[in-house]
């Protein structure tokens, strides 16, 4: 009889999770089978649960993407050096695998491709490890989307600054950390009670987005610091217009570039000599085809940037972690808490 494991399954579009047994898959070439110890939740998870968007090709299915756990089996051709028993962080998402449920995070055993699996340091718990995958990949993809290589290292003499609008979100915290490592002078917007936390992560200056004169304050700070501010990442909704208002005053004659993580409306505001691009990983389509560009990008995000950052302690788990009990059975309630709204907080569920 084939081995099975517990999974939180979405039976049909708009259906809540039900916990049931699934057949445990064998890892294929360049895959690892991971025993899940903790999952982190993202807004995309409740959108998929409640609406079926981003698209789910077929039901029943298993969703989720953020995993920390233990390697159970290693498939052929895995060259990362990870072996059964190793503690790992994994980007386990069926989004790159035609929606197949074997690759969704919300289950006890999940498949993940090797490019998205990296060792979890002994000094971090599984709950801490689970916060990284999707937020790291989204934050880093923003830079490559607007043409900034992840091995960029500006110096203070370059006077390159960046504006991150929405720094206290999960993606925003890694946008701040990565911008600092890229060598930018980092300007961030966040609620006032999160300002000190933003500075700990690497922000040079933090501004309250609720201030009526927040745009002029950012402009004055950039002028005072004598930096070139022509790069931005809009992490949250309704941030493009104020971001462009800042860039209009700070970019001068230079071209500007803006990565936009929320869905970019067709009628979005624009600014002369400014490129505004939806933050999207490369080759993000269902189905086969050449995945080499996508796989290389994933490898860069996890096996290079995150692995090196964890090793050197220049990348830390962020934002603050809120642990919700209940395991797979508690995922519906935990996602409802996320849907109701959290600030500077990542909800994590031990499995």
TrEMBL record:
<dbReference type="InterPro" id="IPR047122">
    <property type="entry name" value="Trans-enoyl_RdTase-like"/>
</dbReference>
<dbReference type="InterPro" id="IPR013149">
    <property type="entry name" value="ADH-like_C"/>
</dbReference>
<dbReference type="InterPro" id="IPR013154">
    <property type="entry name" value="ADH-like_N"/>
</dbReference>
<dbReference type="InterPro" id="IPR036291">
    <property type="entry name" value="NAD(P)-bd_dom_sf"/>
</dbReference>
<protein>
    <recommendedName>
        <fullName>Enoyl reductase (ER) domain-containing protein</fullName>
    </recommendedName>
</protein>
<dbReference type="Pfam" id="PF00107">
    <property type="entry name" value="ADH_zinc_N"/>
</dbReference>
<feature type="domain" description="Enoyl reductase (ER)">
    <location>
        <begin position="14"/>
        <end position="349"/>
    </location>
</feature>
<dbReference type="InterPro" id="IPR020843">
    <property type="entry name" value="ER"/>
</dbReference>
<dbReference type="InterPro" id="IPR011032">
    <property type="entry name" value="GroES-like_sf"/>
</dbReference>
<comment type="similarity">
    <text>Belongs to the zinc-containing alcohol dehydrogenase family.</text>
</comment>
<keyword id="KW-0560">Oxidoreductase</keyword>
<dbReference type="GO" id="GO:0016651">
    <property type="term" value="F:oxidoreductase activity, acting on NAD(P)H"/>
</dbReference>
<dbReference type="Pfam" id="PF08240">
    <property type="entry name" value="ADH_N"/>
</dbReference>
């Amino acid at each position: 009889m084939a081995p099975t494991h517990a999974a939180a399954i979405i039976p049909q579009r708009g259906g809540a999770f039900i916990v049931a047994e699934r057949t445990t898959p064998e890892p294929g070439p360049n895959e690892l089978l991971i025993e899940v110890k903790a999952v982190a939740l993202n807004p995309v998870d409740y959108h998929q649960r409640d609406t079926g968007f981003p698209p789910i090709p077929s039901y029943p299915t298993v969703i989720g993407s953020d995993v920390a756990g233990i390697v159970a089996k290693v498939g052929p051709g895995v060259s990362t050096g990870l072996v059964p028993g190793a503690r790992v962080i994994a980007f386990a998402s069926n989004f790159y695998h035609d929606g197949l449920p074997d690759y969704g995070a919300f289950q006890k055993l999940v498949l993940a491709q090797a490019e998205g699996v990296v060792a979890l340091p002994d000094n971090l718990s599984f709950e801490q490890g689970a916060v990284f995958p999707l937020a790291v990949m989204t934050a880093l993809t923003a830079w490559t989307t607007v043409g900034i290589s992840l091995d960029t290292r500006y110096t203070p003499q370059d006077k390159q600054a960046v504006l991150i609008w929405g720094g206290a979100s999960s993606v925003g915290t890694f946008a701040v950390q990565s911008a600092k490592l890229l060598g930018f002078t980092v300007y961030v917007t966040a609620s006032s009670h999160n300002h000190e936390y933003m500075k700990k992560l690497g922000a040079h200056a933090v501004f309250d987005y609720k201030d009526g004169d927040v745009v002029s304050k950012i402009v004055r700070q950039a002028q005072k610091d004598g930096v070139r501010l022509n790069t931005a990442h809009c992490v949250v909704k309704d941030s493009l217009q104020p971001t462009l208002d800042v860039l209009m005053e700070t970019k001068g004659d230079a071209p500007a570039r803006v990565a936009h993580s929320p869905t970019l409306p067709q009628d979005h505001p624009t600014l002369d000599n400014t490129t505004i691009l939806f933050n999207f990983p490369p080759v993000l389509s269902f189905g086969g085809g050449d995945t080499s560009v996508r796989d290389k990008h994933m490898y860069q995000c996890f096996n290079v940037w995150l692995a090196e950052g964890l090793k050197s302690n220049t990348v830390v788990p962020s934002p603050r972690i809120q642990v919700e009990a209940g395991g797979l059975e508690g995922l519906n309630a935990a996602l409802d808490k996320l849907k109701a709204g959290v600030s500077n907080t990542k909800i994590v569920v031990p499995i």
